[in-house]
Amino acid sequence: MYGSFSTDNETYDTGDEMILAQDDGDGRGNIKSPPTPGIVLNHYARSQGRATGSNHNGRSNRDITSSRHSRPSAMSLSNITLCAALAILLLIIASLMFGGEEAGLIGHHGPHPMPTFPNIVLPQFKDIDGATVSPPPQEKRHFVRLSDPRIGIHGRHLLSSTGQLRADWSATRIVVEFSNTRAVWADIRSANMSKAYSQNESYWCPHYKHLYQTMHAENGPSECPYWFDVWDVYVDGAHVSTLKLNTLNSQIEADPSLAIRTLFVFDKAHMDVALNATWDNTTHTLVLFKRTGPKKGGTLLSGLIFDKDAVVHQARNPYLKGRRIEILGASEENGECALGTKKDFYATMLESSVVGYGTLLGEYFQADYNYVAMGSEGIVLAAKPDSAPYLKYYTRTLYSWPNPAWNFSSFEADAVLVANGITDWGNVKDPSSLLPRFAQNFAQLLQSIRDHYPKAWIMLVPWKEQQIKGMTAGLAEYQQTRSGAKDMKIIMQVLNQSKWPANYRGCENHPSPLGHLDYATQLAPTLQNLLGWNTIIATGEKSSTTSFSYMRST
Fold this sequence. Notes:
Blueprint: E1 4-7, E2 10-13, E3 19-22, H1 43-46, H2 79-98, E4 141-144, E5 152-154, E6 158-159, E7 165-167, E8 173-179, E9 183-190, H3 201-214, E10 230-235, E11 238-244, H4 249-254, E12 260-265, H5 268-275, E13 284-290, E14 299-307, E15 311-313, E16 324-329, H6 357-365, E17 368-373, H7 391-394, E18 396-398, E19 401-405, E20 415-418, H8 422-425, H9 431-452, E21 457-460, H10 465-481, E22 490-494, H11 513-531
Parallel strand pairs: 3-22, 16-17, 16-20, 20-21, 21-22
Antiparallel strand pairs: 1-2, 4-14, 5-8, 6-7, 7-14, 8-13, 8-15, 9-12, 9-14, 10-11, 10-13, 18-19
Helix pairs in contact: 6-11, 9-10
């Protein structure tokens, strides 16, 4: 049995059964405010007999349907026969959509009732220059290395034998709970793993300037851009500081104190507004969130510093057991350009995975999440001549270092979101010539994902026409090369941005925070339906049914 689907004037054959979900009935357009709860999304909404969004107009773009039928025949049919066939097909589609596990639509997972979704919210994300204070002298410090078991670490990272942490993938998070200290500091600096955005600067610097000129960005660089990692600091849910690791390591070598950065100071003004507590008898939760992706040099975090009498408690896991999401993709997934406007061009301070749709979904469902996304890295092609195909990096612990390989058993994903392909199709003049190579490489990526996560749902989440076509060809090749049964736990949900208003886009046509929020709202019901995840955190505030949330809503 095979499936096919149409977008505008083309029909794509998946080569086997595939589930497809698409925003249906609302068009996702003309949105004047953040998406309302339960806006939808896919065929599960249709089963409710109504559209759950309230601020949208009728859809006029692609129509994606789920089907389970034979390959289309080239025979010409009479009108009567055609009408009869269509009627039968509609009955089959309806039974697949609403028949649940008995219909064999989603393998061993029967559909769960469509929930009433509260709003997904954006966390606080605007840059903050936090208060600073000198750290205590060495003899009055409580120094905690990142290898300390009381510290919680989320996201791909590498710990050295001396307890230092290196990270270059986006959305690495450090969680620490403490009490009885005036402030918190960190010994943190650039890891200098790949300080430049491209190691071939003789190519990239002039190319970068040419790009922003041809794209008519008004706020482009006057010279080769300087890239560095950026971390956001949250204390008890409040965004309190933004750390820019833009101090050169040569300067730190001359003055080591420059590596000691203040994360948070318990000053009276902040106590009254953000925490409403006293620092000396209350346990607080601090989270360091790496909001920039690879190619910014990476981060070396040697340890956290407290006052000598501080107490560091065992950090609670903010996520529920059995809820893990992995996000594969490129610059959009990392939140590149999210904080910019159409007048801007790519820049470090305009990037933030804090507002990325993967983060929003993870925090919404209280599911742990790992980002394995990198800008300018394609399945086959890339935007730079010194880049390699994506699969080379997918198995790494750190993007910048080929070894050690990532231990996939340390993070067994339940859902894998795959958004690759934009870079490939944006860097080829003849898409048809690239399609066979893309399909082959994409099939290899799907096989790698399945080998590492035998039980996970794989969600293909394209939005661009050629990207959809490439993923479909790759999926067909993957299914055909499998030695055993076909993979029934792959779903494609086409993300719809066709009628986004201007404020849903950042710079270079990338999603803004509102765009990422819209993506998350499109995907949430599908994740809930496939995995049965109830919504635990919906407002960013603490919930009586869970431990804590560290990202208070805007």
